[in-house]
UniProtKB/TrEMBL annotation:
Family assignment from sequence similarity: Belongs to the beta sliding clamp family.
Record carries keyword DNA-binding: yes
Ranges annotated as biased composition (Low complexity): 194-206
UniProt-listed GO biological process terms: DNA strand elongation involved in DNA replication
Top-rank taxon: Bacteria
EC number: 2.7.7.7
Record-given protein name: DNA polymerase III subunit beta
Residue ranges annotated for the DNA polymerase III beta sliding clamp N-terminal domain, each copy included: 1-118
Signal peptide: none
Length: 401
C-alpha cells in the first residue's frame, strides 16, 4: 500500500473512525483501525460489535492495499503531526507514516482476524445533522446509566410519517423530542448506492419503523457528521444506520421492549406555573448546596412567586424566592431531585419554563415557552414548545422549614 493524503482529511478520517474503538476490546484485533487504499480514496474502519464507523477521504493512491494498526496509537500520532501532507506505505508487517520531518513505523496487526463489519441498512429517510445532535443530547440525559436493564440505557427512535421522535427514560424521568425529517419515497432507490439493497427497510410510519439504541453512542455517532449535512437514516436487521457521503455509521439495537409512555402525559392538567429559566436555575443550584446527597429541593408555588427550598429545620436550610406566574387557588409543593430539574431546564432552549401537572402533582411535565404571558401564544404562559417535553416524578415533599 502506498498513499498520499492531505493533513486535514486524514486527521478527520482517523478521528471519525477512532470513535468506534472499544475502550475495553473483547479481542485484541478490535483495538485496531483498518485502513484500505483503493483508486482515489483511503478508507478507515473501526468496529466493536455494537458501533461501527466507515469513513472515506480522497487520496492519491500509488499502490492499493490494506493494513490493520493500533487505533489509539494512530489517533494519538495524527493529533501530534504538523499540518502537512501525509504518506503511508506498508512493508510486510509494518506501516510507515511520514509527515514533513516526522516519521513513525507501526507494527501491523493480523488483518485476517479482523471481523467483517455489518452491512449498512437501507435508508428510510433523512434528517438534518444539527437537529439530530440537539435531539440526541436532550434525550440522552434522561437515559439510565445503570446497565442492569439495558433497554433503559437507550433512546428509542420512532420514525413517523411527518416527524422523528426520540424518547428515553430511567423510570424517574422521561424526555421526548420531536424533530422534522424527510421520509424516503418508497419508489425511489437508496441515495447512497446504485445497486439494490440486500433487504427492504421498513416504511416510515409503520409499526416496525422504530429503533432502540444506546443513548451515548447515538449522541457520539451524530456528532461525527458536519452540522449542516443531511444524514440518511437506515433501519433493518437489528441495526440503525447513519449515512452521508464519505461516512457510514451503524449502531446495533438494544434488546427489550420500551415502556408505554404516552399515558404518562396528563390530557387535562390541573395546574400550571411559568417561571423564568435563568433565575430558577440559579436558585436551584444555590439552595442545593445545603441538600444532602439524593435529597430533593422543593418548589413552593404561591400566587405570583415560587420559593426554592432545601434542607430542614434541624439541618442546614436554604431558601430563595423568585417571581412566577401561578394563579391557582391553593399553593402547591413540588419536590424533585435537583439534578433532574437542572438537566431538564438546561435543555429547554427557551427563556421561560412551564410546569404542568395533574390533580395529585404526579407526574410533572416541563416544557419551554418563549414569553411569560399571552403575548406569544395567546394565553398565560405563551405557547409551549411541543417539540421537547421533559417529565419527572416528584418525591414526597417534606414541609419542615
Amino acid at each position: 500500500m502506498k498513499v498520499e493524503i492531505e493533513y486535514a482529511p486524514f486527521h478527520e478520517l482517523i478521528n471519525r473512525a477512532a470513535k468506534a474503538l472499544a475502550s475495553r476490546p473483547a479481542s485484541p484485533v478490535l483495538a485496531g483501525l483498518s485502513l484500505r487504499a483503493e483508486e482515489g480514496a483511503l478508507h478507515a474502519c473501526a468496529f466493536d460489535f455494537e458501533f461501527a464507523v466507515r469513513a472515506s477521504a480522497s487520496a492519491t493512491v500509488g499502490e492499493p492495499g490494506s493494513v490493520l494498526v493500533s487505533g489509539r496509537l494512530l489517533a494519538d500520532i495524527v493529533r501530534a503531526l504538523p499540518k502537512l501532507p501525509v504518506t503511508l506505505t506498508t512493508d510486510g508487517a509494518r506501516m510507515l507514516l511520514v509527515c514533513g520531518t516526522y516519521s513513525y513505523t507501526l507494527t501491523s496487526m493480523p488483518l485476517k482476524e479482523y471481523p467483517s463489519l455489518p452491512e449498512t441498512p437501507g435508508t428510510i429517510g433523512s434528517v438534518h445533522a444539527a437537529a439530530l445532535v440537539s435531539a440526541a443530547g436532550q434525550t440522552a440525559l434522561a437515559a439510565d446509566r445503570d446497565e442492569t436493564l439495558p433497554f433503559l440505557t437507550g433512546v428509542r427512535l420512532e420514525f413517523g410519517p411527518e416527524s422523528l421522535r426520540l424518547v428515553s427514560t430511567d423510570r424517574y424521568r422521561l424526555a421526548v423530542r420531536d424533530l422534522p425529517w424527510h421520509p424516503s419515497d418508497p419508489q425511489s432507490s437508496d441515495p447512497r448506492i446504485s445497486e439494490p439493497q440486500p433487504s427492504e427497510p421498513p416504511a416510515a410510519g409503520s409499526a416496525e419503523a422504530a429503533a432502540l439504541v444506546p443513548a451515548r453512542t447515538l449522541l457520539d455517532a451524530a456528532r461525527l457528521f458536519e452540522p449542516d449535512q443531511q444524514i440518511g437514516l437506515g433501519l433493518g436487521d437489528g441495526l440503525l444506520g447513519l449515512i452521508s457521503p464519505g461516512l457510514e455509521v451503524t449502531l446495533r439495537q438494544l434488546d427489550g421492549s420500551f415502556i408505554r409512555y404516552a399515558q404518562l402525559f396528563p390530557e387535562h392538567p390541573a395546574g400550571r406555573a411559568v417561571v423564568e429559566v435563568a433565575p430558577l436555575l440559579e436558585a436551584i443550584k444555590a439552595v442545593a448546596l445545603v441538600a444532602e446527597r439524593n435529597t430533593p429541593v422543593r418548589l413552593e408555588f404561591a400566587t405570583g412567586q415560587v420559593a426554592v427550598v432545601a434542607g430542614s429545620g434541624d439541618q442546614a436550610l436554604a431558601r430563595a424566592t423568585i417571581e412566577a406566574i401561578y394563579d391557582a387557588d391553593e399553593p402547591v409543593v413540588i419536590a424533585v431531585n435537583p439534578a433532574y430539574l437542572i438537566d431538564g431546564l438546561g435543555c429547554l432552549g427557551t427563556p421561560y419554563a412551564q410546569l404542568t401537572y395533574p390533580e395529585k402533582v404526579r407526574p410533572v411535565v416541563l416544557t419551554g415557552v418563549a414569553a411569560p404571558d399571552g403575548e406569544a401564544g395567546g394565553e398565560a404562559g405563551g405557547e409551549p414548545d411541543a417539540q421537547f417535553r421533559y417529565l419527572f416524578i416528584p418525591v414526597r415533599a417534606s414541609t419542615q422549614s
